[in-house]
Design a protein that fits this description.
470 residues, alpha+beta, four-stranded antiparallel β-sheet, 14% strand, binds copper (II) ion
Length: 470
Amino acid sequence: MLSRREVFQLAGASMAIATLGGSQSAFAATAAKPVRRDINDVAFGQEATDKYRRAVGILQELPSSDSRNWLNLSEVHKNFCPHGNWYFLPWHRAYLSSFENICRDVLNDGQFALPYWDWSMFRQLPPGFIHQKVDGADNPLFYSARAMKGNDTLSSTLGAEADVIFNEGNIATILEAKAFQDFGSFMPVGQNNSDSSWQRKRGYKSTLESGPHDYLHGGVGGDMANPSISPHDPIFYLHHANLDRLWAKWNSIGGENEQSSFWTNFVFKGNFPLADGNPGGDIPISKLVNIADQEYRYEDDVAISISQSTFQLNSFTTQNWVSGLEVGKVSELIVANNEQLSDGVSSVVEEKQGEKKLVLLLDGVTTPANIGTTVRVFLNCDYLTPATPLDDPHYATSFTFFVAQHDHATGENHSLQSFAIDITETARNLAVTGGRLEDGLAVQLLPLTFDGKKLDDNAFSVASIQIATI
Ligand SMILES: [Cu+2]
């Protein structure tokens, strides 16, 4: 069944195509591009796996003096990758393109395209990645430093969160985001120009990033769970190709990219090597925003953009979170009611078709010793325990810890994270079930570990929270 918005988008799409009418050359140009396909596609998966395996094998054998050497390519991610801000998607698009071009060069195959792993539909490692040997030789796609092995599913490594985060319904909700920042993470707090120094500053992680992106890194586990070395595992590039595909898909169903010049004028300066291994030049975001400008395409992308949306963050209240967080224990903060808050909440709750979202901003979350920690977010739940199921109406979502360590070069502390948690549906549920929303909002955080182990030094904290609409 189509929502009202989807019907509108379909109508808009056919109008846009009708208006484009005779520009056949544009279609011819896209048809010749290498196509990124689903690694689990019955017709193309095996061929895509074989090509990718050969490329990875060649890159792993290159001498360390070659910038295209497998481990050297991973250093690019370690040194420059932005996470937790609005450069997350365009930076990774450029990183993957650089990698894909290098693969084309070493394979001498201009039609090579990275496959993607649609982890929502297929929640285990693609078959080509699980065996140590292929035809008697070492398999470059096998990687021993993974928590996920063989036929493990995301549920076996992540527990109950897997079915919530990778649920098709959750992906569909993520794709309904109106504004780019809600989709692809927020502007760094306080950013006031497009200087390169903002590349790795902290904003709030969107649901796409804190949900499927971060949980997949944790679910594969091992080196994938550590941003400094995650591209050591060949599955990394297929994971990010799927995120990049979702960005293209969001655009194709009407999501419009950010218009702020702090984003559009931003330049990634010399981050990415060229296909021949020489240092690459500067890449402005303006060259990355349109899928039609890239040197690849997806089977299902359509380059149209029809919606107009501006991003507006309207914060009602800020409160410091006083207590620490501890695995297995509920930590609670009551957000006192005031007129502004109750007006804000009721405007979103009563607005049935959801033009606005109610969000909980968690600011400055420190990292526990066990990064395989998941934090469940509940509102106004009187009976919350670790056994409370995730289909409880008071449950909002969960977040985890995919976070870089302290950067000694710049002195910046990247091990802090901030999150924008969508609590719209939960607030609506509570309005229906008569939860205590009118008396104030009890925000409850319940940390648990994927492996059930509690480390001694596992205390961590949240600096402050805000309730806001976007
Ligand atoms: Cu990633």
